[in-house]
Design goal:
Layout lengths: L8 E3 L8 H11 L5 E5 L4 H9 L4 E4 L5 H45 L5 E3 L5 E4 L1 H7 L3 H5 L27 E9 L5 E10 L5 E2 L1
Parallel strand pairs: 1-2, 2-3
Antiparallel strand pairs: 4-5, 4-8, 6-7, 7-8
């Protein structure tokens, strides 16, 4: 919500025109993180629960006998709100940086001169770049419904079976293969394959 022109709101439940709970709900529509405390002699368990569920920060029963305690709780509420807003701002910055990084990575992958495939540990295709689609003659959507191992035709003396279980023992593998295009032709390729810690692999 918009930045509030004050640090904290202190409400009573019994007020003219709008009670404390209604006021809190109205405040939350515009100021999500503004601390709102209720100080009232008309409290009940039901009211406390409703107030906290609606986004209230603290609830104090009157008559108030310790003004210093109220001041302490007000300072704590303000500090907690500031810490929360700072944490949210930092998280948003991290998320934005991650989105930008993913966009840069996606751009690099799409512009790569080689075909790049991302698959599950069992070989089901999760993603493929434009060059990979062009090489094999399939659309991206068609390839996402296929298993990459099914595209490998191990014919000829130079072909080496692509053993996915071996990837768990090494950082990457390089092998000479023949990929079957959509039109049935075989495409000789050199495949460099790397497995990620989560079991996915990229070729």
């Amino acid at each position: 919500g918009a930045q509030a022109p004050f640090d904290l709101v202190l409400l009573d439940q019994m007020m003219p025109e709008m009670d404390g709970l209604e006021t809190l709900i109205s405040i939350r529509e515009r100021h999500l993180y503004l601390p709102v405390m209720m100080l009232t002699a008309h409290g009940s368990i039901t009211l406390v629960v409703e107030f906290m569920r609606a986004g209230g920060t603290d609830f104090i029963q009157k008559p108030l006998v310790d003004i210093e305690l109220l001041q302490l709780r007000m300072r704590r509420a303000i500090r907690a709100s500031e810490d929360l807003q700072q944490a949210i701002a930092q998280r948003e910055q991290v998320e934005e940086a991650l989105r930008e990084s993913e966009e840069r990575y996606r751009t690099l992958v799409e512009q790569a001169p080689d075909g790049i495939f991302l698959a599950t540990s069992t070989g089901t295709c999760l993603d493929v770049n434009a060059r990979g689609c062009l090489m094999l003659g399939y659309t991206r959507q068609e390839l996402l419904n296929m298993r990459f191992p099914d595209l490998i035709m191990n014919e000829g003396s130079e072909a080496t079976p692509l053993r996915f279980e071996d990837l768990r023992q090494v950082d990457f593998m390089v092998s000479t293969q023949q990929l079957k295009r959509k039109d049935g032709h075989l495409l000789p390729v050199e495949i460099s394959t790397k497995m990620f810690p989560d079991g996915r692999w990229q070729s």
